[in-house]
């Protein structure tokens, strides 16, 4: 590789590789402030840039304007619930390709199947381990972004 780079010195036709994005931008949407704060802190500690929203409408707006690389979305929220937000995200060409991780206390298999059918990449049920969320986010983003090494997860606190 070094030889090829040095061989290209002085030539005007060589190309410089484009810089890679170093930090993935995540949008966390949950009406549980304790959970939201803990997940945001955990994901920031793993090298992610994190934006938060406390309800579905705010989350949808931030997804459309901020264009995150991935979204962690609560299923049960007042107003626009997670399913409605997910449907709107997947119908809009600007956000349809953003991977979404649903996080919820609903464990009914029909709900999980419905969320996945709407386009969620994964569905985690509460209580969750912080490491599970970090691993799922890393998996959704693929090799484009490399999170910091992670320790075993702790149980994420919830206010409900």
Automatic annotation (TrEMBL):
Residues 25-141 form the Response regulatory domain. SUPFAM superfamilies: CheY-like. The keyword Cell division does not apply. Pfam families: Response_reg (PF00072). The keyword Phosphoprotein applies. Signal peptide: none annotated. Keywords: Phosphoprotein. This is Response regulator. InterPro entries: Bact_response_regulator, CheY-like_superfamily, Sig_transdc_resp-reg_receiver. The modification 4-aspartylphosphate is found at residue 74.
């Amino acid at each position: 590789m070094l030889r090829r780079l040095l061989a290209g010195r002085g030539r005007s036709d060589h190309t410089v590789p484009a810089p890679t994005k170093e930090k993935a931008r995540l949008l966390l949407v949950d009406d549980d402030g304790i959970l939201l704060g803990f997940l945001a802190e955990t994901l920031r500690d793993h090298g992610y840039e994190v934006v938060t929203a406390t309800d579905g409408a705010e989350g949808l707006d931030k997804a459309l304007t901020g264009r995150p690389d991935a979204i962690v979305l609560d299923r049960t929220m007042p107003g626009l619930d997670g399913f409605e937000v997910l449907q709107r995200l997947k119908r809009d060409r600007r956000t349809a390709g953003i991977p979404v991780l649903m996080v919820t206390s609903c464990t009914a298999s029909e709900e999980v199947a419905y969320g996945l059918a709407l386009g969620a990449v994964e569905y985690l049920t509460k209580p969750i381990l912080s490491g599970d969320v970090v691993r799922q986010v890393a998996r959704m983003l693929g090799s484009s972004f490399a999170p910091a090494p992670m320790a075993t997860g702790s149980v994420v606190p919830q206010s409900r």
